[in-house]
Amino acid sequence: MNETNKKLHWKEKRKLKQVEKQKEEEEHRMEGLVSSIPSSNIGFKMLQQMGYTPGVALGKHAQGTLEPVKIELKHSRSGLGRDALEREVASKKARKLAIELEKRSTRENELRTEFQERRRNFWQTQKITRDYRKACTTLAQLEESIKLPLSPAENVDNSLLEVTKDEKQEEPEEDTAEENEEEEVTAEDLLEILERLRSQFHYCLYCGYQYESAETLATCCPGLEEDVH
């Protein structure tokens, strides 16, 4: 156990020394790159003898480069050009992953929107069906009241025509299977029976009231649709 600790300590110590040495070399290198060549430098003197002027580009017509060639340090042990190739491959993978994530997100949003639309259509269909059945029941009651020989004091009571919340909830469970087998009621079917109630009996399903005349219905009732009530 002690030998393992010593070995690990020795490896860590060597690694730290390498990092410190590399850091010092980097600092010296940067100092050398920042500072210009001194005039006492032999190579600089040779350039001056050949006609070089400090601050002027190289070449007979000063068409050469003005700044020294930039160097790129390589700390890994891979071959030349390998790092650039790896960066390019990593960049392509990142772009491909971003495209896949975007496609997945778009697909999820489409599925979520489609599901919400299906649920909205389902509940809307259920609501239309319930209103249609209420309208049919009311219409049947009104038509039956006309057929019966009622005295003036026995006119149709509007309170009997109103469908309370308790009546909505007291739907027999046996009718559930039959409702699923029935044909789907459309908004046009509901609109047709609502207009029939209004035109023949001056009755508004959503007001829950039978008005005295068509003029009173047009004045007091907000409209044909439930949203305006």
Please describe what this structure looks like.
Helix 3 (about 80-145) runs parallel beside helix 7 (about 185-200). Strands 1-2 form a two-stranded antiparallel sheet. Residues about 150-160 and about 165-170 have low confidence and may be disordered. A hairpin with a 4-residue loop joins strand 1 (about 205) and strand 2. It has about 230 residues and is mostly helical. It has 8 helices and 2 strands, in the order H-H-H-H-H-H-H-E-E-H. The chain is about 65% helix and about 0% strand.
Briefly say what this structure is.
The protein is mainly α and 229 residues long.
Number of helices: 8
Note the gap between the termini.
Answer: 85 Å
Helix content estimate: 55-70%
List low-confidence stretches.
150-161, 163-169
> Class by helix and strand content?
mainly alpha
